[in-house]
Design brief:
Chain A is mainly beta and 120 residues long. Chain A has strands at residues 3-6, 10-12, 18-25, 34-39, 45-51, 58-60, 68-73, 78-83, 92-99, 107-110, 114-118. In chain A, strands 2, 4, 5, 6, 9, 10 and 11 form a seven-stranded mixed β-sheet that branches. Chain A starts with a strand and ends with a strand. In chain B, strand 4 (33-38) and strand 5 (45-49) form a beta hairpin. Chain B starts with a strand and ends with a strand. The chains are: A mainly beta (120), B mainly beta (108).
Chain lengths: 120, 108
């Protein structure tokens, strides 16, 4: 069975960077894109971007283009999302997700979420 | 960017009710629409993909329809486990893959 297990909660100061990991199991890691979606507490869902672990190619939402870096490590089947120059507006749950099939963008599997709190 | 607008934002209903949630896209997205259910403290759960296809394991009381710009999620007979927040998501080729603002389904 497919599992996406994310790293634990983070507390960061404004201006810092945060890196969240997502370890995949139960399927061929390089066969599916990993997406990142965030959710400010009490608000809606926001797609941030994807990485193709097979090629390392990424695609980011324009809103995050200047501050986000998505990477992957095929040896450990782990994807990473790093967000730089964070502010209190970046306080949110960050989820990794995988689609049903390669090339699809409906998210069948989700990580448990990682809460990132930005506070001075 | 494609804007997704859900209505209503909040819906009060009773067990056994038939419930309809709508989602409108700011431009045509074909049938590239998914519906998710989210409960407090949990990740979203995929219910419907490609507008009308029921995800495996999802009860048949959930159904989706629509194409182009107008879409509907119907729960035919509400069960206690269905009280949650529902989101639509478009995944047309136009980035970003945007979500609706959510519909919170509450117990009347």
């Amino acid at each position: 069975q497919v599992h996406l297990v994310q790293s634990g909660a983070e507390v960061k100061k404004p201006g810092a960077s945060v890196k969240v990991s997502c370890q995949a199991s139960g399927y061929v890691f390089t066969g599916y894109y990993i997406h990142w979606v965030r959710q400010v507490p009490g608000q809606g869902l926001e797609w941030m971007g994807w990485i193709n672990p097979n090629s390392g190619v990424t695609k980011y939402a324009q809103k995050f283009q200047a501050r986000v870096t998505m990477t992957s490590d095929t040896s450990s089947s782990t994807a990473y999302m790093e967000l730089s120059t964070i502010t209190s507006d970046d306080t949110a749950f960050y989820y990794c997700a995988r689609a049903r099939f390669y090339g699809d963008f409906d998210f069948q599997y989700w990580g448990q979420g990682t809460l990132v709190t930005v506070s001075s | 960017d494609i804007q997704m607008t859900q209505s209503p934002s909040t819906l009060s209903a009773s067990v056994g009710d038939r419930v309809t949630i709508t989602c409108r896209a700011s431009q045509s997205i074909g049938n590239w629409l998914a519906w998710y259910q989210q409960k407090p403290g949990k990740a979203p759960k995929l219910l419907i993909y490609k507008a009308s296809y029921l995800e495996s394991g999802v009860p048949s009381r959930f159904s989706g329809s629509g194409s182009g710009t107008d879409f509907t999620l119907i729960i035919s007979s509400l069960q206690p486990d269905d009280f949650a927040t529902y989101y639509c998501q478009q995944y047309n080729s136009n980035l970003p893959y945007s979500f609706g603002q959510g519909t919170k389904l509450e117990i009347k």
